[in-house]
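Entry for the shared binder. Reason: the reviewer on the internal report wants the predicted structure included alongside the sequence.
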Amino acid sequence: MSTTLENTVTESAARTWLREFWDQHWMGCTIGSLLLVFGIAAFANRMLISVYPGQGMVLYERFAGRPSPQIYYEGFHVIAPWNEVYKYDLTFQQQTVPITALSKNGLEVCLDAFIVYRPDPLLLSHLHRVYGPNYADKVVVPQLRAALQDIVGQDLPEQLYALARAGQRERVFGRVKRLIGGVYVDVAEVSIINVKLPPKIQEAIQAKLEAEQVLEMYDFRVKSEQREAERKLEEARGIKRFQEEISKGITPQVLQWKAIEATLELAKSPNTKVVVVGNRDGLPIMLGSEVK
């Protein structure tokens, strides 16, 4: 019971002290509370940060003088108002970059490169520390230009049209990925969507390609004629072999016997005929046969 009495006395004394303190300092407490509320309202946009889906945030610690190694992903975060925040788009981004390069023979070539990329989410703080928010202009575009200038410099102008084909994309993609993919950026696709040569060079290439097509057509015709000649020669050889085989089995006696059989069959017909027997070959000769 003594303990309960002591607690009651203590609470009463505290209330009395708070009442006396408020009576003496109510104006200062009110002004301080208002300043605190206004301060929180003024710095709310620097303290209460929302990171939306597909974004990543890097926190720059002002007093430490460096980016925080922690990466903030989607959600609601409370930070100190003196720190700075930098948000990055972590989704894949598309960009078309115009590039001018020199071909193997020194001809200036213009082309458009299409690239799909995004910052590596796990290396976002390193990317921010080395390149900053404008990493695309500092890393992606320059390295893409360097890679394609190196590739274009290995080919002749008429070979550059092949860069826009599907079969050459792996070559371009592998080269660009080796340069850009190692510097905190994930490259998903690289392709050439347009190759532009000077008009005169392009006309010359088109004329050369057309001439090659005409030559291929002539070659096709020549080969077709050669195959037709071979077919006819083989057919003639077959006919000759057939005649040689047939001639071996046909003797004058066989021919005479076949003629006699034919004469007998003809004699049986009701048509009027004159048969003469006794010619040089011993075969009958029919004269003046008429069909009634």
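Summary line for the report: The chain has a mean pLDDT of 75.
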